[in-house]
Amino acid sequence: MSAPIQTRVDLEWTRELEFSAQLSKTSMVLDSAGVAGPSPVETLAASLAGCMAIDLVHILSRGRHDVRALRASLVATRASTEPRRFLGVTLHFDIEGTVPADAVSRAVELSRSKYCSVWHSLREDIDLQVTFDLTP
Fold first, then answer.
1. What crossing angle do the helices spanning 101-110 and 40-62 adopt, rounded to 10°?
2. What pLDDT, in 10s, does the model give residues 6-31?
3. Closest by alpha carbon to 40, among 30, 29, 27?
4. Dihedral angle at the C-alpha atoms of 112, 114, 118, 120, nearest 10 degrees?
5. Does residue 47 contact residue 94 with C-beta atoms inside 8 Å?
6. DSSP summary character for residue 5
């Protein structure tokens, strides 16, 4: 069995509810109000959408499908009381290229069931709905 992979993030409180985040190769600002930078929850949503979008492009490209463009749109429903966690997520992909719908469905399922580490790091009771539209 291989050794666990580590991810490191260093935060420094800069003011109010803002933090400077030093990542392995980049940096960003986290802001509770989402003004100086994304909030932690917005960052989580972007991470989920990004993880699955990267998986789709990778899987479809490796399958030699002609993906010319891919856009993702995520809408998350959050609980109204603390901790206001995600209850449901709808993620929609718009894909341009000559890609068969069954190949996209397979890529979505592979991302969801095997590859997307962000999805697998979230609670299992979150309702995730993924849809897509294809434009040749």
1. 130
2. 999 999 999 999 999 999 999 999 99
3. 30
4. 90
5. no
6. P
